[in-house]
User: Fold these one by one.
Assistant:
Number 1:
Amino acid sequence: MANSLPPMSCVAETYSKNEEDVEPKFKYQRLANDLKNILNADVITCSAVHLKFLIFGTFRGRVYIFDHQGNSVYSNLSNSERYTHKVAVNNIDIDHKGEYVATCSDDGKVNITGLFSCESNHSLSFGKFIKVVSLDPDSKAHIKRFAVGDDKLILYERNLLNKLKPVELCSVEGSVLSICWHGNFIAWASHIGVRVYDLNERCSLGLIKWEVPSEERLENFRCHLRWSNNHTLLIGWVDTIRVCVIRKRDSIEASTGKLPVYIVDPISTFQTTFYVCGLAPLSVKQLVVLGYRKEKSSSFKALRPVLCVIEYKMNNSEEICTDSLTLRGFEEYTVNDYSLGGIIEENRFYIVAPKDIVVASLIETDDRIEWLVKHSKFEEAMELIAANGGNMPVLSVAKLYINHLLALKKYDDAAKLCLRILGNDKDLWEEEVFKFVKCQQLRSVSAYLPTSNECKLDPHVYEMVLYEFLKFDVCGFLNLIKEWPSHLYDGLAVINAIHDNFRKQHANQLLESLALLYSYQGDFESALRMYLKLQNKDVFQLIRRYELYDVISKLIIPLIQLDRECAFEILLDKTKIMTEIVVHQLEHNQEYLYWYLDSLLKKDPSNVFQKKLISLYAFFDRKKLLPFLVRSKDYDIQEALFICKQENFYPEMVYLLGCMGGVEAAEALNIIIHSIKDIEMAIEFCKEHDDNDLWNALINEFSKHPEIVTKVLEGIVDYVSPAVVVGKIKMGQNIPNLRQSLIKMLWHYNLQGEILSSAQQIKLNDYFEIHSEIVTKQRRGQQVSYEQLCSLCHRSVLMIGTYSNCIIRFVCGHVYHKPCIQGKLQKNCIECNLWNLTVEK
């Protein structure tokens, strides 16, 4: 088996432009098993990678075949010394099917070996160094063609006699350094650049010149050629990479002369910071490049090689990631000691060094997840699992993520993650919640705890959350009591906890919490007391919601103190609480009783308690007393009069005495004159009662006070003869404005006489006019028809065939034959008289 590499921090370090911790593209394994024995005894000089196996050439000229795990594979290469070279193997190539292998060496030999058949084996000797050889990749059966490069590019083909015939394809500047064959195109490198040969047209498509490095020779660097598809060639040489497309010429290009059908068109050229040791395609625009660093260590030795993922564009590139690899003996190697092979279909690449072989595999989902988790990129790991699946469950990553967030003290983020991941799993919730208990951060997760019937946790969990809030955040504790359903926890236990941890600085919040908890427990009286202590108006909502009207009978005064208007909305409703109970409770607070009875009077003007309002109005709001006395009749006048006398409420006393009449009315007039001292009021009082005794008392009083004579004269008109008033005036008495008052009085009487005379004349005129109309109307003829019947004989009043029809018709409408009522004739209708008698009986 292949040995896993040591931890990546020791074997491969990943770099990016911003020196951030970037997710790696590859995971690495070092090949061992049987290969390890070969590496201990020999040095690898070249390699070839096939989908089925690996082949390595060594410094001693041997060629070995292994499976992809480094185990030896039995083949013709392993059981014969004939097909080995005398010196180091320079190049190895494998046909598409994996049946033949071509090798070459500085011993001048080129060997074509069938791995499992010797039918088409060849061994050619050139007598000079042979650096490269390539098999036809499109062979359908046995090997028919292969290419060899020395100072010429030679194609060997089988003729009809099954013999190899060499064909010189092209002369070369210097020697052929590298060959890569794909389809009908052969790409090779010489000392000045790269050419592509078209086997169909038997011509070169042109030279791609390469820039010669300063102080170096181009041939001292291995040229790495790779076909990424049928028409795309990748070239990596020295520190430059070029991507070329083999395309057909367009009509304009083809018309310029006899040119090849195809042309090599470079689409991207860019430099790297290292020397290229191999390259392979990764995706449409990405390459995997093995690099040898240009810099040296402080001891002037080679640095570790790098494996880069490069994304290329038109004429520039971007390094996606770079892994620096620790291979055995890397300090002693040169740029040409490394090579890169790959199985593109499986995104697996082999980094080959003289004494070490490492496999770089494109990192798989599980590897990515493991790396992301290791580097605390949990969110990305969870997204990856959700999109592609994996052996590690999302829940396991989520738990690690929660632990990580808690360690970073990101408690709210951890709580949100619980909500997103744990769903309605009760056991998972309880397991994760206890992690918050350890760091005393249950407050952070409280908003996300499940509270529905589908997922209800153990009551102890919710109680722990409440206790923590009670200890550290009383306002948050109150909010939870309001938000959480009461069945989630033991309410009595929480109530006891509040009492045990009651703090005066948080009295309001704790009292409100107790009120809510008592309500949840059904102890509404205790809840009301808490609200009242708190002076919280929610108490009224609680009373209405639970109809606690029986409970409030002993809490009426505190309720009024809290909010009189809201309290009276309840107390004035007789269907909820009896008026007698309210009045009894308010007897000891006369002001509240006054407010209540005053409001009750507006809603129920006939209530039996309104008589209490007389003393209450007298004490708290006298302005309402007189209107109440006038409007209401349901009180004791004597009691009311007594209260008014005590308080010297003269207008109220005048009204009450006036209602009593007689002597009391005279007392009222006396109060008006002597206490109130309002003559207009006295005159109005006399007019209202229109009593001669009252008028005489008033007139007698004015004679003592000349200054009020004129007012009396003006007020008695229509009630008392002015002569009576004038007669009371003493001779020589000085009365201000008497002349004007007498003139005004006489003018008024004169005007009154004229009015009476005119009214009498109008009345007489109306009488005679109406009398005339009645007489005329009664003399007018009345229509009588044949259908009318005599009210006595009940026959038609008009007799046919009779010369004279004598009938009598009354104003009431009844009609009689004259003969029928002879002897009975009266002023009134007989029928109507009978009806009136019946009604009277």
Number 2:
Amino acid sequence: MESEQLYHRGYCRNSYNSIASASSDEELLDGAGIIMDFHTTEDDNLLDGDAASPGSNYAMSNGGGAASSTTHLLDFLEEPIPGVGTYDDFHTIDWVREKCKDRERHRKINSKKKESAWEFTKSLYDAWSGWLVVTLTGLASGALAGLIDIAADWMNDLKEGVCLSAMWFNHEQCCWTSNETTFAERDKCPQWKSWAELILGQAEGPGSYIMNYFMYIYWALSFALLAVCLVKVFAPYACGSGIPEIKTILSGFIIRGYLGKWTLMIKTITLVLAVASGLSLGKEGPLVHVACCCGNIFSYLFPKYSKNEAKKREVLSAASAAGVSVAFGAPIGGVLFSLEEVSYYFPLKTLWRSFFAALVAAFVLRSINPFGNSRLVLFYVEYHTPWYLFELIPFILLGVFGGLWGAFFIRANIAWCRRRKSTRFGKYPVLEVILVAAITAVVAFPNPYTRQNTSELIKELFTDCGPLESSQLCQYRSQMNGSTAYTDDPNQPAEPGVYSAMWQLCLALIFKIIMTIFTFGLKVPSGLFIPSMAIGAIAGRIVGIAMEQLAYYHHDWFLFKEWCEVGADCITPGLYAMVGAAACLGGVTRMTVSLVVIVFELTGGLEYIVPLMAAVMTSKWVGDAFGREGIYEAHIRLNGYPFLDAKEEFTHTTLARDVMRPRSSDPPLAVLTQDDLTVEELQGVINETSYNGFPVIVSKESQRLVGFALRRDITIAIENARRKQEGIMLNSRVYFTQHAPTLPADSPRPLKLRSILDMSPFTVTDHTPMEIVVDIFRKLGLRQCLVTHNGRLLGIITKKDILRHMAQMANQDPESIMFN
């Protein structure tokens, strides 16, 4: 890794041993790898003057007495002080410094492990802590996913009725033990009562339909209202999918509370309510957020991760893999999703731990068996018929549809979310949720394909028809298979129920497309995977039925003649639904490898990888033709998070001097000198500016760079010195050098801040192409980079400067995209 190479070349930051062993400032600067011109005699004197007398005496006068003590300057920062090296909310971590801190900790443990049995035990605990934390994360993720699945199924059925024998049973579980069910009406049993039967005492008729309609809307609005109120009052961060924010956090951004215990608790509860309300959303994306909350909470049990933000993000990468594993029952797909879609830094060690976390989470969910089918997902299917070469044409057409849908959805949803942010409508999130939930419930109830749970809809669309299926979609299939339920003649045409189902599916497709645009982004937990898959599955099933009927009526066409015999079963509509679901999800998220593996794990069939790959790649190409951003990157940009997407290419020919600050019209760069400031002057610079850090130079005249000091570290160091040291006053001199010169006897005690100084800030020359600068920021996760000319400081480039510049190059308003 780049940071390891930089470390061995002397770039490690805040290394107390290297600072202490250096004999002069010039040696420290050279050791840090900073290339400067040291031919000026004046600057050499400035740098080496304090090192000429390493044993300089510091005389102090106490209470007006003449007695003086010959003591060395007290450096209270020889030991790291609490708070130094930490980060404020909505700031970016320093990846290189965090990795160096971890190596220092690792060396310290290795050097002590042979001293005693206790130290050896501590080293073993440290080595195994990574596996322990991902194990706990996997256990918690699997348990919470099982709880969410069971509760969501029960509450979804609560909208239609209740089980009198056991209220905690959903509709399917209620009829399991009944001896009065028939095959044709397997979902009807005396134990399950609809609301019309309970309230009116009748199961059929207009009055019964209206009562069930009313109760459906009542429960949908109740669940949606409770969900949005819980989110608004207790955990505002629990809304949305969570994946855009997790991508940003994994890139190094700090959002305190986003992965906290309150967010976890409220997200778990409100996710059940939101799914049960019938809104066009899914629970798969929020499950990644839930798993990352578990990983974040458990990481605080282990100092190795709680005290190092970079190491903590390795746990979060593994947690996101566990989240997808329990969402789709796809452990390998979860690991690839973490690698391809959300992770910013993914070393090999994290790959192994992500795999293990996904394994543990899937094992726990399988043990709970929330769907009662011994599977990890509700819509697990297996196909027993092969696909034929001519079917690649409709598969690719489904990929084109998925790409067009993805591009349309991203533009429409972002436009609506931007309007929500910029108008008064966004100030009433509760009203918006109630309004969308009411429209969804009113329109969804009359259509059986929109009334049922979206996961159950996908299951029905994926399922290969056979004699055991009683769905309207399978009436023609039962005839063609010679099912005794209809007729023994396989040449009969499809029943009218199939055409009725096709019309209902077309209406459901339009409904899902419109409502998903307005639902994603509401102030409730809302995932996008399931709605996108449902839209693709509906389109795919329609195409599959059309292809099957075409093959049935025109089996003598050259396309079907070679593969389809009269009455043969050569087209599988469920496979088309699966390919369409993958294409639409790929068009929205622009995932490729991980998506194919996830869908492959759903079906358990190797032979369908080629159709999936063809459809997913086609959807990505078509979507990229309208814009390279997926929905998560678009929401990151909409919210103004400081995220540099590694997939986005920088093709402009600008230089570092074109981007750095200060510009010609800006005030001079705020800098600190290494030995000319007092505490009062230093505090004045901090109070008068809002910058997060300051370059430290030799003198105002030379502008020779010494290092970089963070605002937060300076403030904490000054407060800590005043608490622990006597004699620190406003006129105390502040030193960033290794040694302090001799001071007059009546001078107050000086304050030495050498140890909080970053002695190896990354620097580029003013002629460095911005293409290289952007690449450095992406690969090393930098917060800022200093710009020099012939070794003298010119300016600074931060991550936000780069984002502003990229927006400006794309003809966007630079300030409109920044995080507020």
Number 3:
Amino acid sequence: MDLLRSEPMQLAHLIIPIESAYRAVSYLGDLGLFQFKDLNAEKSPFQRTYAGQIKRCGEMARKLRFFKEQMAKAGLSPSSRSARVSNVDLNDLEVKLGEFEGELLEINSNNEKLQHTYSELLEYKLVLQKAGEFFYSAQNGAAAQQREYDVQHIGEGSIDSPLLIEQEMTTDPSKQVRLGYVSGLVPRAKSIAFERILFRATRGNVFLKQAVVDDPVIDPVSGEKVEKNVFIIFFSGERAKNKILKICEAFGANRYPFADDLGKQFQMITEVSGKISELKTTIDAGLLHRSNLLQTIGYEYEQWNFLVKKEKSIYHSLNMLSIDVTKKCLVAEGWCPVFASNQIQNVLQQATFDCNSQVGAIFQVLQTKELPPTYFRTNKFTSAFQEIVDAYGIAKYREANPGVFTIVTFPFLFAVMFGDWGHGICLLLATLYFIIREKKFSSQKLGDIVEMTFGGRYVIMMMALFSIYTGLIYNEFFSVPFELFGKSAYGCRDPSCRDATTVGLIKVRNTYPFGVDPKWHGSRSELPFLNSLKMKMSILLGIAQMNLGITMSYFNAKFFDDNLNIWYQFVPQIIFLNSLFGYLALLIVVKWCTGSQADLYHIMIYMFLSPTDDLGENQLFFGQKFLQLVLLLLAFVAVPWMLFPKPFLLKKQHQERHRGQSYALLHSIDDPLEEEPHHDSHGHEDFEFSEVIVHQLIHTIEFVLAAVSNTASYLRLWALSLAHSELSSVFYDKVLVLAWGFNNVIILIIGIIVFVFATVGVLLVMETLSAFLHALRLHWVEFQGKFYEGNGYKFYPFSFALVSEEEE
């Protein structure tokens, strides 16, 4: 498995008999190493050969989506059994899906009708109860008032009394006015407006009585739970009745008949209650049948869904093939890795044999100058690191892949900023949980954040391991130092150790064997010492990684046989970078080795301002002044070296190419797709010399400025490492130690809880994300920017494994 260069690719030409085309494409999907080119790009989807089959598969996919929606509404989930075991014929499946859909639609339709009737009966029962209460209380009140009136007027006669009584007795009952009434339910939110409109429309000639229904009821029309009021409206006359009916309709008020006779009311309530009980039993039976049907569908759903996706993808690929003039064969073109040639030919032969075809499929390799897709063979460990690189840009075909180095450099630079072996152990335990249970998690649908964390579990594991390593170097365990590798090399001047923070410590034994001496922590010199150490270490790491990036540009140019980029890009760039910042790295190492007190800031500044002045006490080694003059001269020479020669040489090459003076022998090489030497974007017909000059000028200025800014950018390693260390120290000293000092159990428990939440929330989540993003920037800009073009396109083979992972 070679990750440094993408797999050699070839453009293949397939001629497949029509009778074995379906099976051949299916077997290629199982193999997953052939990317079809669309040979019918000028045709619309409806003009292609297999448009009918795709439409058919789309209809089956629609039915499956319908089943999934119904299962989700019912609270069921498809069975998680393997979807790959498929012995179902597509025609049988189509018939079966149609039958299930028809049955399910019929069940749903009947259930909706029953639910509608059930909701109406429930509302009707409420109207009968509430309106009956109103009539009963009104009749009782009227009877009581009549009795009271009769008692008050017994014996109180007048001259008019006989005449009035006689008039009342002689009145025709048919001429007495009878009030009509309408009853029903209105949504509570509309009840006030309903009452106001009724009053205005009838000019107050109605009597409205409302009763609040305690619990929300299911509206028969919308099927949703709504808070409602029971109303009864008394009116006189047909005109008032028509107005009331229109207003009820406008406000969505459901009207129900009502009898003023108490006996009839009781009979109606009894009948409605019986119907409600019967409907409830019927609805429950229907829901049980529907649930059983959905369970049957859910058990086979994944298998059916995969089969439909598979069939649709096969016909979609077949639509990319063109029919030859005899209309007996299909012609395909596509990319495949060179190593897969024999596998593809074996698959095509197997398809021919299985179909009993008399004519075999033909596999040919085509010669082309088209840029092939990029394909890296990765596994579950390397894929996440490759994704980090691909997020920046897909590597150009056969370009050096930064992913190889990213496997080590990315977690290491993260760990430089996150160095604490206690926090590293916490990260390691968290990611080991995902790694140990990866089979279970890979078969489940996870949330966005959890899925992203699970996908990068091996990246986090490497980050945690490197964090433990750098934490041991920094000697920090939740900011607490330990004497893990022996005793400290330093001791106090006297046994009382009172001068440890004022006068300082003295060396009493051999140097601490690994990492930072534990005595540095908590001393007066801790911050200046660690600042100096981490700052210089960041510069060394940055210069080393930038040199690696420039060196990779040499290997790219060498691989593509591009001598221009070797002599006029790589050489001046490596000279310029190391003349200035490589020299700074040398000074840092020499100063560490010699223990000199020289001021590196002064040396670097006056190297430019006064290169001929005597160095004095800042001289670190013999011949330093002469070396500085040579390096300064080389840096100044490197800039025009990058700027001027390359455009003129490109122009010369262009002119020679068009005069026919640039012919070369055609050698037989293993890779027919090897790019031509000097295949550059400037080598086309419209060669604009001014554009090339401007482009080279921009590139040169960018590199010179980036050499300074990128070196400074690596100081983020020092800054974030210091911030992480100080935050960890604050949480330990100001929370945990402070709570311990109170000698109170409750305060100690609160302190431990605050410390744990602060450590997890800030240091293990926010700081991890921060260090991850900064390490990402250092790789994308400072490292990959030196050599990585990233203008290729990815190899997407026709594979059923990829089809099954796609979301509809």
